[in-house]
Design a protein that fits this description.
It holds the Pfam family Cellulose_synt. One of its GO terms (cellular component) is endomembrane system. InterPro entries: Cellulose_synth (IPR005150), Nucleotide-diphossugar_trans (IPR029044). Keywords: Cell wall biogenesis/degradation, Glycosyltransferase, Membrane, Transferase, Transmembrane, Transmembrane helix. The protein is of the alpha/beta class. Helix content is 51%, strand content 8%. An 8-stranded mixed sheet has the order 5-6-4-3-7-10-9-11, sandwiched between helices. It has a two-stranded antiparallel sheet with strand order 1-2. β3, α4 and β4 form a beta-alpha-beta unit. α4 packs parallel to α5 and α23 runs antiparallel to α24. The radius of gyration is 27 Å and the shape is globular. The structure holds uridine-5'-diphosphate-glucose and manganese (II) ion.
Length: 745
């Protein structure tokens, strides 16, 4: 371990974004002015004014949440050189990859991620890679076995030439665009690698088309007669670094946990807990890295960077996890569907890093094993002793004798050695802890491990760390640590956003909410408030949908929520300031105006449609009426012959999903109200008639919903289906009727 007198392995620097703070505060003041105006105006007690007041109060609260989260951003600077001076002390790290569906997540993608992990710049005898396959697919297993053979050539090649991108498909596709002067030897070896890789992907392709007969026997026999929803645990050690060579290959283990129809499997969280236990038995590394199957390593030194933080003898001791940004490769230019999250990571996540630390974003994260085992950050030796009693351990961790021993070791933080670790010795015990009944009555998913109960497992799991007094850190080395694939279509984006909104709603109203963590746990006030930025995704939609319905309501019933004349300047100034400020945020980190506008537009569309549906389904789940499912996001393997698609890459596509019914309804309601105003069909009233304020709102919403407007008239997948239009028209008519009945009736 490091001597306390040593220089720190990492430094934390707080930034002072003065200009941002001024703008943020100014916008807050304008919001408060607007609220003040509402309170003191004579119309306060009419229904629409009250609703507007409610929504604007919420927007003000949301702004305070954002401002608070962004206020004191921090970055970390890591010193690998200092860490490397202590090489003999480098700790083992277990690497986790999850996959769930061989169709939505093509095995070649999983294979690339695994290869990039195996080739990390870290002593290989300290690494073990575990792949969890919830799809129970012989194909994925086959692909991994074949990849492990390729790895024997690929890993030494990468290390010899210090290749940066170690996922072969990215390496070869990036090569095509950069031509450097290189040694003939490298070029020769590279072309050999390319041939081998092409051969590997061809083999996997062939099996997708026509499964080889040997799938029913030999190593693949265990997969015969299995159904992904009903099968025993399958655990296979594909590679074992028996001699513990520091320049060999890491262990590679395939795990498909038991599934039975009568059990709840808890989606990714369940898979992560099985990975934690199986790895606990086999290698029991004190640190673990978890990535989604599409997130490959982009910076081969990333483990070293993360270890600088986790191994630091002062500040690092309180850190439960290190989060790397989620970044994407081949994202569509200017982020047309708003799913690349560049700004969110830059301002919110980096902002939270200046408080108690970033939230756990589900992937690209290094965890401290004893923290995931439920320890508090500052537990004393004595307090821990009580917890290590065998009875207590069995109650929390389940009845596997072997696992209890390993858990006790992990909790004590006792010395680890990479020698004589042989995963295959533990197959039997590992099968036991991967079975569905194992967690029954234990604390898994409830007090420790990845938490259950919501389809977003990452946020409550992160909250659980922070609640116990741990901190977290961001790690943002150059080049960036990992890159993955963002959804490439509107539909998959909507499915993803809907899942987040429903899961987050359940979290916000559940026992793991940031509010509970602040009052009953060790989450600091400002940090708890910052957490509301993400946990409130679902709830936010309710207010935005209301606010989108208000101006049409006003037009139809000929009332008004906005001041007229000079008074209108206030809300307009607020709107303009907000837009200019966000635009400045985008430009200052090198994003384009187009990127900004796309995100502005999508924030309206996503909030009022996908998040709204997500909120409703979250509420149904909270009331116990229905359950939410984890719909896996489609990962696309870039196909060289699909280039023709590119010009339509950012275009909106529609289908019969309810998300589009909501969006189309909102659009039709705006159009209808505008038509009513234009034709002068409004209810006749004497005072406070609707005016420019309402019209501006409607126009802005129409501009945001322009792709939908085009969709009304387009055909095929770019057009909104006729049935969706009919449903929306019905809903819009009902809305108009209801509005009129409040005044006429
Ligand atoms: O039953 C399941 C469902 C999913 N997964 C895996 O979970 C990961 C994330 O799934 P994905 O469909 O890619 O979801 P995203 O919306 O892209 O994921 C984001 O949001 C999730 C929470 O909703 C987090 O878990 C992820 O880390 C985060 O990247 C993938 O590796 C899946 O294979 C499983 O292992 N088992
Ligand atoms: Mn994903």
């Amino acid at each position: 371990m490091a001597n306390d007198g040593d220089l720190p392995l990492y430094e934390k620097k707080w930034l002072k974004p003065r200009f941002q703070r001024v703008m943020d505060t100014f916008i807050l003041l304008l919001l408060l002015f607007l609220l003040g105006y509402r309170v003191f105006s004579i119309n306060t007690f009419t229904f629409p004014w009250f609703l507007a007041f409610l929504c604007e109060s919420w927007f003000t609260f949301t702004w305070i949440v954002i401002l608070n989260a962004k206020w004191s951003p921090a970055i970390t600077v890591t010193h690998i050189d200092r860490l490397l001076k202590r090489v003999p002390e480098l700790p083992p790290v277990d690497l986790f990859v999850t996959t769930a569906d061989p169709v939505l997540e093509p095995p070649i993608i999983v294979v690339n991620t695994v290869l990039s992990l195996m080739a990390l710049d870290y002593p290989t005898n300290k690494l073990a890679c575990y792949v969890s396959d919830d799809g129970c697919s012989p194909l994925t297993f086959y692909a991994l076995v074949e990849a492990s053979k390729f790895a024997k050539h690929w890993v030494p090649f990468c290390k010899k030439y210090n290749i940066q991108v170690r996922a072969p498909f990215r390496y070869f596709s990036e090569l095509a665009t950069t031509k450097n002067e290189e040694s003939p030897q490298l070029m020769q070896e590279r072309s050999r690698m390319k041939d081998m890789y092409d051969h590997l992907s061809q083999k996997i392709q062939d099996v997708i088309r026509k499964p080889v007969p040997s799938f029913v026997d030999g190593e693949f026999g265990v997969f015969s007669n299995t159904d992904r929803r009903n099968h025993p645990s399958i655990i296979k050690v594909i590679l074992e670094n028996k001699e513990s060579f520091s320049d060999g290959l890491p262990h590679l283990v395939y795990i498909s946990r038991e599934k039975r129809p009568q059990y709840q499997h808890n989606y990714k969280a369940g898979a992560m807990n099985v990975l934690t236990r199986v790895s606990g038995l086999m290698t029991n590394a004190p640190f673990m890295l978890n990535v989604d199957c599409d997130m490959f390593v982009n910076n081969p030194k990333i483990v070293l960077h993360a270890m600088c933080i986790l191994m630091d003898s002062k500040r690092g001791k309180e850190v439960a996890f290190v989060q790397c940004f989620q970044q994407f490769y081949d994202g569509i230019k200017d982020d047309p569907f708003g799913n690349q999250w560049v700004v969110a990571f830059q301002y919110i996540v980096q902002g939270m890093a200046g408080l108690q630390g970033p939230f756990f974003a589900g992937t690209n994260t290094f965890h401290r094993r004893k923290a995931i085992y439920g320890l508090y950050s500052n537990e004393t030796e004595a307090e821990r002793k009580g917890k290590l009693a065998e009875k207590m351990l069995i109650k929390q961790f389940g009845s596997s004798k072997e696992f209890i021993i390993s858990a006790a070791h992990a909790l004590e933080g006792s010395a680890y050695s990479a020698d004589d670790i042989s995963p295959s010795k533990f197959i039997e015990a590992a099968t036991q802890v991967a079975n569905c009944g194992y967690e029954y009555g234990t604390s898994w998913g409830n007090k420790l491990g990845w938490l259950y109960g919501s389809v977003v497992e990452d946020i409550p799991t992160g909250l659980n760390y922070h609640r116990k007094g741990w901190r977290s850190e961001c790690c943002t080395p150059d080049p960036i640590a990992f890159t993955g694939c963002a959804p490439r279509g509107l539909l998959s984006t909507m499915i993803q956003q809907k899942r987040w909104a429903s899961g987050l709603t359940v979290v916000f109203f559940g026992k793991h909410s940031p509010i509970m963590g602040t009052f009953f746990g060790k989450i600091q006030f400002r940090h708890g408030l910052a957490y509301c930025w993400i946990t409130n995704f679902g709830l936010r939609s309710v207010f935005e949908v209301c606010y989108a319905a208000l101006p049409p309501y006003c037009i139809i019933t000929n009332t008004s929520i906005f001041p007229k004349g000079l008074g209108l300047c206030f809300p307009i100034a607020l709107f303009v300031m907000y837009k200019v400020h966000t635009l400045q945020e985008y430009l200052s980190i090198g994003l384009s105006i187009r990127h900004w506008w796309n995100n502005q537009r999508m924030s309206i569309i996503t909030t009022t449609t996908a998040w709204f549906i997500g909120f409703l389904s979250g509420v149904l789940k909270l009331m116990g009426i229905s359950d939410n499912v984890f719909e896996v996001t489609q990962k696309e393997y870039p196909n060289s012959d699909a280039d023709g698609e590119d010009e339509n890459a950012g275009r909106f596509t529609f289908d019969e999903s309810p998300v589009f019914v909501i969006g189309t309804t909102i659009l039709l309601v705006q159009i209808t109200s505008l038509t009513i105003w234009f034709l002068g069909l409004q209810v006749v009233q004497n005072e406070n008639v609707s005016g420019p304020g309402e019209l501006i709102c409607i126009t802005y919403l129409l501009v945001c919903y322009l792709p939908y407007l085009k969709g009304l008239f387009a055909r095929g997948k770019y057009g909104i289906p006729f049935s969706t239009i009919c449903k929306s028209a019905m809903l819009a008519l009902i809305f108009v009727h209801l509005c009129r009945s409040t005044v006429v009736g």
